[in-house]
Amino acid sequence: MAQHAGYGRWVYNWGLRMWMESYRSGLKPTANKLKKFFTNHVKPKYPWMSELSSKVYQYAFINLGDAYERFFKGLAEYPKFKKKYHHDSFTLDDGGGERLIKIGGYKHKLPFIGWVETWEELPEYQVKKVTISRQAGDWYLSFAIELPDAPPTETHPPNPPPGRGEGTVGVDLGVLALATLSTGQVFPNPKPLRFAIKKLGRLQHDMLRKVTGSNNYKKASLLVARLHRRVANIRADYLHKLTTFLAKNHSQIALEDLNVSGMLSNHKLARAIADCGFGEFRRQLEYKCQRYGSELVIVDRYYPSSQLCSNCGHQQKMPLSERVYHCPDCGMILDRDLNAAINLSKTSGSGGLACGVGAADSPL
Ligand SMILES: [Zn+2]
Known about the structure:
Layout: H1 2-24, H2 31-42, H3 55-72, E1 89-93, E2 103-110, E3 114-125, E4 129-135, E5 138-143, E6 168-173, E7 177-181, E8 186-188, H4 191-209, H5 215-249, E9 252-256, H6 260-264, H7 267-276, H8 278-292, E10 295-299, E11 324-326, E12 333-335, H9 336-346
Parallel strand pairs: 6-9, 9-10
Antiparallel strand pairs: 1-4, 2-3, 4-5, 6-7, 7-8, 11-12
Helix pairs in contact: 1-3, 2-3, 4-5, 5-8
This protein binds zinc ion.
């Protein structure tokens, strides 16, 4: 598997280099043109390539083409060269319906690789292609399966019609608490995540005291990589629970259009924000709202949600260090994030204060 991943990386990096060079000399490269050239003129020069699955290099070109397409559409940065041990992965397929892939139970058959075992038992699936990737020293299988359309929303409690107010929730995303809802519910950054991040700092410190490249260094860096994986898994799990809870239980969700890239230039906040995964938060809410029939309202990023008094509309400057809103006009005293969340809930057109979502249980 490491050989196949290395093959995929070699080809991807070759393609990327060729793409940049041919672009510089005035040509218009495509993944297909490069693949043809590679098949006819490059691959024959490297006998070791013919000992590995040819699917690997075909998918390397497909992935390269996709990476450029995402870049041209403005969805991603310019493709980067792949590094060894860094997101090692490769893709194999069933050879166009030959059913070379068998997934089910604890043992699975992969084309070219043979039988592999997983820790987790899997149902029997008919799989067209499978991507094998390495994370922190362990190998993972990932694949897509086809399922019949999900039943319509009857299985979920019907959402109240929009505009009644009680279904509308304002969500303030923050750094101290991940999310504060206009209902008063607060979703702190999960404890296991905070512990893991603390421990990560310690392990990284240990690693740096070892001689680079030594066996002890490798051992320490594997521990760091494993903990990184754990942090990512906790975060992904937490975000999914939070976004599902929001989309399933509210007819309208008002969220601030956070200028994440702009905020990332503020170095003090950068780390904490990247950790919360705001971009991912919004992406999940978008598709889950569609799934559960609720509406996502994105509030203009210049709307001063933290500066306004949610009770009387007074506006004042609120530096980030100011955790509580004190209104000089009406005397309201309220947590800064809650005040912002209530303001957001009011922008969605229903006018009223969002407060009646009691039926929903916290997912966490
Ligand atoms: Zn006020």
